[in-house]
Write a structure and sequence with these properties.
Elements (H helix, E strand, L loop, with lengths): L17 H17 L5 H16 L4 E5 L2 H11 L1 H5 L6 E5 L17 H11 L6 E6 L5 H12 L3 E6 L5 H4 L3 E4 L14 H20 L16 H15 L3 H10 L4 H8 L4 H10 L4 H8 L3
Parallel strand pairs: 1-2, 1-3, 3-4, 4-5
Helix pairs in contact: 1-8, 2-8, 3-8, 5-6, 9-10, 9-11, 10-11, 11-12, 12-13
Length: about 300
């Protein structure tokens, strides 16, 4: 596995000056970003496959061990506040349990029994989307969950940093980001971890865009849970509907804080009809505006 290689270039790394070490580590991060380019078609295909099931109330389930698990949780946890993704349609299979997110649990990644128990408890369904992350591509826990999910008909997405590994063969949508040797051999929290984080950012954001939770480059489905976000919500309604801040705030109040509904209200549509329009169009503001026609 290339992520485990000890590169001759870094054999004296610990004897280098700090500036030179940082330069090498920074270059590695740039290389990790560049390695994602060839994977863009695979990411797009995975998002397209995920969309149909998620429109039918499927769940997004992230699976991983160690660094990969933490990266998965970070991505998934940001979906509810950013895109109003329902918490009940989000799940995490973490090798070693939630405690492993802050403290290493020895041997957890090798437990296929724990993986089987999690999969059984989760009752994975065909409309679910299961995303497995493994830098090595051979993590037993992650592989076991993915295989069970695939057997149950779910969309399975495997993200790995080594080619020709089991995780890429045992899922319906493999995503390879070949980041190669790390500056510190085997330290996949570096290049591999960076690449995994970016891939998840791209994948989940594309899915949310395709599901209509973004309009004109704005996160119109966000939850306005603090003063900054409430101001942002008012600004979005004002910009999209072409009204002043006072009218936007009034529309938001009438729409109970729902930005797409508030946009329709600000455009003069009755709040009940606005809600109906959005329901008929799956919450997609662009589609609702198209049906409503010129204001």
């Amino acid at each position: 596995m290339s992520t485990e290689w000890a590169s001759p270039r870094f054999s004296e790394l610990d004897a280098w000056e700090s500036a030179d070490i940082l330069q090498a580590l920074w270059e590695g991060q740039l290389a990790a970003v560049a390695a994602i380019g060839p994977a863009l078609p695979a990411i797009a295909a995975a998002a397209a496959a995920a969309e149909a099931g998620l429109r039918r109330d499927g769940r997004l389930l992230y699976v991983g061990a160690g660094t990969s698990a933490r990266i998965g949780v970070q991505d998934g946890a940001e979906l509810p506040p950013t895109f109003d993704w329902p918490e009940e349609r989000l799940g995490f299979a973490v090798a070693g349990g939630e405690g492993a997110l802050v403290r290493a649990v020895e041997g957890a990644e090798d437990s296929t029994q724990d993986a089987a128990l999690w999969a059984e408890h989760a009752e994975i369904r065909p409309d679910d989307v299961v995303i497995g992350l493994s830098a090595s591509g051979i993590t037993p826990f992650t592989l076991a969950v993915l295989r069970r999910a695939r057997d149950r008909g779910a969309v399975t997405i495997g993200i790995a940093n080594n080619p020709d590994t089991p995780i890429l063969r045992d899922c319906t949508h493999p995503i390879l980001v070949a980041t190669g040797a790390e500056a510190i051999a085997g330290s996949t929290r570096m290049k591999a971890g960076t690449a995994q984080k970016i891939v998840l950012n791209l994948l989940s954001t594309l899915i949310m865009i395709r599901l209509g939770r973004v309009y004109r480059g704005r996160m119109v489905a966000m939850r306005a849970t603090n003063t900054k976000l409430r101001r942002r919500g008012v600004a979005m309604v004002a910009q999209i509907a072409g009204c002043d801040a006072e009218a936007a705030a009034s529309a938001l109040a009438a729409a109970e804080g729902d930005i797409p509904r508030a946009v329709l209200v600000a455009l003069g549509i009755d709040r009940i009809e606005a809600a109906s329009l959005l329901m008929r169009n799956g919450g997609n503001l662009r589609a609702a505006l198209a049906e409503a026609g010129p204001a």
